[in-house]
Every structure is written in C-alpha cells, then in structure tokens.
UniProtKB/TrEMBL annotation:
<dbReference type="InterPro" id="IPR005814">
    <property type="entry name" value="Aminotrans_3"/>
</dbReference>
<dbReference type="GO" id="GO:0008483">
    <property type="term" value="F:transaminase activity"/>
</dbReference>
<dbReference type="InterPro" id="IPR049704">
    <property type="entry name" value="Aminotrans_3_PPA_site"/>
</dbReference>
<keyword id="KW-0032">Aminotransferase</keyword>
<dbReference type="InterPro" id="IPR050103">
    <property type="entry name" value="Class-III_PLP-dep_AT"/>
</dbReference>
<dbReference type="InterPro" id="IPR015424">
    <property type="entry name" value="PyrdxlP-dep_Trfase"/>
</dbReference>
<protein>
    <submittedName>
        <fullName>Aminotransferase class III-fold pyridoxal phosphate-dependent enzyme</fullName>
    </submittedName>
</protein>
<keyword id="KW-0663">Pyridoxal phosphate</keyword>
<dbReference type="Pfam" id="PF00202">
    <property type="entry name" value="Aminotran_3"/>
</dbReference>
<keyword id="KW-0808">Transferase</keyword>
<dbReference type="InterPro" id="IPR015422">
    <property type="entry name" value="PyrdxlP-dep_Trfase_small"/>
</dbReference>
<dbReference type="InterPro" id="IPR015421">
    <property type="entry name" value="PyrdxlP-dep_Trfase_major"/>
</dbReference>
<comment type="similarity">
    <text>Belongs to the class-III pyridoxal-phosphate-dependent aminotransferase family.</text>
</comment>
Amino acid sequence: MTTVPHLRTEIPGPRSRELHAQREAAVASGFGITLPVFIERAGTSTLEDVDGNTLIDLASGIAVTSVGAANPVVRAEVAAQLDRFTHTCFMVTEYEGFVRVAEWLNEHTPGDFDKRTALFSTGAEAVENAVKIARAHTGRPAVLVIDEAYHGRSLLTMAMTAKEHPYKTGFGPFPEAVVRAPNANPLRGQGADAALAEIERLIAEHGPEHFAALVVEPIQGEGGFVVPAPGFLPGLRRITDAYGIVLVVDEIQSGLGRTGMLFASAHEGVAGDITLTAKALGGGLPLSAVTGRADIMDAAHPGGLGGTYAGNPLACAAALAVFEVLDDPGLLPGVTGIERSIRRHLEPLVDELAVVAEVRGRGAMMAVEFADPGTLAPRSDLAQRVAAACHAAGVIALTCGTHGNVIRLLPPLVIEEAVLEAGLDILTASIRTVVAEEAAA
Ligand SMILES: *Cc1c(COP(=O)(O)O)cnc(C)c1O
C-alpha cells in the first residue's frame, strides 16, 4: 500500500469543486456537507476522490461502513443476490435472507429470552416502529427520552431528538407525548444517581401508566459520544422494570461491534426489551432492525408493521456478509486495539492542552471534547478548525455534540494499523496547531 493520505491536489480538488457547483444547482440545500469532496472508489479504510486523492476514512459514512466501504464479502453476497432478484416486498412474497438476518439478530442481541425481529430500511424507521410496538404492548402513549439524545429526522424521531438546530428548526409542530429526562454526563458532573432520581420524579409526576417506552442510546452518538456515568443504564433497567415501561436501547450507532463488544449495552450488562440496529447492519445498504422480547414484538397486529422496502433482499444479503465479518473471532479484539491506539495518541493532549477537556468512548467510537478549562464552556470553534485542518490534510473526521465542540472518530473496524496511525498523527498534529494558533492570536 502506498502511504496515505495521498494528495495530488488541494482538498477539495478542481473536479470536486466543479461537481459541487453542479450539486448546488440541483440538490436541495437542506442537506449539509462535512467535506465537499466527490468519491470515486473505496479501499478498506480509505476513500479515493475524483481528483485522484486518497483520504483516510475516520468516519465510516457515520458508523455505517464498519467492515469497509468496499468489503469483498459484502460485494460478493450482494452481487449474488443481484443475479437472483432485487425485490419482492416481504409483505407480498417471502425470501430467505430476511429470516436469516432476523435469526442472527435474535441470537446475538443482548437478552437471554425468546425474541422476534422486524426489519426496516432506516434508523428513524426502527425507532418509530419500536414506539409503535411499545404502545401496542402497553396500551400507553408516551415516550421518555434522554437529554442530548439523537434518534432521527422523521417527525416522531425529531421530537425525540434533543438538539434544536439544525434538526428541528422550523419543522414543528411535533408529535406530543415525548418527555425528556436528564442525562448522566460525567464530564459535566451529572452522576447516575441524580439523573435516575429525576427520572423517577418525572415518572411519578406524569404517572407510570403514561409511559410506553424509555428510549436510550447506550453511548450517545450525535449528542457527543457521551458514555453515561456507570450505573445509569442498569438504573434505567431497574426503573423500567418497576413500572412496566419498555426499555428500548438504540444501538443504531453503537451496535454491531463498534465499541469492542457486539453491543454497547453489554458493557454494563444491560439488555433492552427491544434493541435497535441500523447503520452498520447493512454494510452500506439501507437496513434497520427492531429486535425484542417475543411477547412485546408480537403485540403489533398482522399488517400493522412493514414498509415497501422493509428488509430489502440486497440489504439482507449485505447484512449476512457483515455478520460473517463480525463472527470472525479476531474482529472485536482488533476494535479494542483501535481504542488503545486512539487513547495513546489523544490522552496526552488532555494534560498538555487546557482546552482539551476529555477523551472518551469505547472501542472504535471515540471522541475528544474541546471546552474552556474550569467553566467547561464548549469550544465548537476549535473542534470545527481541527476538523477543517484534518480535511485539508486528507483525513475525514466528524464533529458532534449539542454544541458541536466534539471531534468523533468512527474508523472502519477493519482499518489497517498503519492507516489508523497516520490518521491519528494528522489529528493530533492538527489539534496542537489549532490550539497554538489560538494562543498566538
Ligand atoms: C443515525 C441514528 C439514528 C437515525 O438513523 P437514520 O438511518 O439516519 O434514520 C437513530 N439513532 C441513532 C443513535 C443514530 O445514530
């Protein structure tokens, strides 16, 4: 492999600029853009653009291409399915791939109980359907969600998402019966006990018979890669058990090996009544799943769930290939190795630079937060400039956080060690440069 990143032009290059101008004339401007570079092909953990630049991918298309964006097993399985047929609609005639994906998820999601799975296409659809199922099961209306949560862009999931801009501004009114509960964010001094007590209070205030479901990300994604204070997830399990509320664990970003275990909730020994997957599930093809206790899942009447493309055959074929990669016993230890490399590069910066507030995360879901020392006032300006410096140097890094002051790392789980090292060297150098420029200004 030639050394990466390999840059032949500035980023974005001339051909990308030309295409981006065409995009602006053709595509609705509501779509944001992290890095206006057009991609031609992918390697294991690199993306080659239309100007011949090879970029290091520390984003995986937002935690989707965990097995790489050009995985040969995914390509072979999808190509074979493409030769057979592309679609029947699972509600019209059946195909085996749908059943095999459901079986794998029933077996591997947390919880030692009888399960059923429903497949859809997007993460937001999975969240919406989990709420439908929880309502059908409990006969109750409302959903408890957590501060800083992200659950999608559809009307219900927008309401469940915390951050106003850009997700919600101008798009209301929103569905009712969404109640927001506090987070247990250790950096900001929000411990598990205080958050759980407040959640108990909210449930008492509205009455337990008000709540069908509590939906929680075991590690928050868009909200800032917040790993909840220890005890928070087990506490939510206890509370939901006590009041007959369905615990829905949104593993759409954190699941399927991302954190070094198959599911992030397993780090705390917690099993949701329902576990949601999407993103990495389809290996780059649109696929999402709701997997849960059989009696809860089957509360929805026949015909009540579905969708034209739900569990598309090509996406199911891709998922079965993803499962083959996940079943490789070397994979999860490799993810733990990614965490070690990231910590080795980034953790020294916490002592070295006052504005580097924290390095956190698990496995290949790691983040660095920028905030003023003492006040912890978010410094999105620094995160944005670090991301821009990485992009210019050929490394695709994403920001996140309610205040946009967090850089998040989501490399493919199969990233080669040398590529990861090169990417992290550029990231740490970018952080040092941006902070030094700031001090000089
Ligand atoms: C991305 C995401 C969603 C929404 O998934 P889409 O496929 O974009 O609809 C929901 N929950 C979490 C935690 C996510 O990261």
